[in-house]
Amino acid sequence: MLTVFSREPNPEIDSLTPYLLLEPAEERGISPDFLAEMEARFEEDESIKPMLRKAVIGLSQQLATLSMNDNYKPYVHVCLLNPATVSN
Hints:
4 helices, mainly alpha, globular
């Protein structure tokens, strides 16, 4: 777990999935700075890969339950996220 959270990891509830679905400008959304920091530490911090893997699996599982009439825009937005292109 990143030290940004300042707490012990809890694998039962720790997931980026719900936060990735929010717009970065929302209070609980993931900021572009946070994503850029994760990207910068990706190769050196072994905790980031499983965290992202868990989030992407969660997104995939949720998306699999949606129909064409549901709101899938947040899921498309997550697929397009790139810390270098997201602005505040």
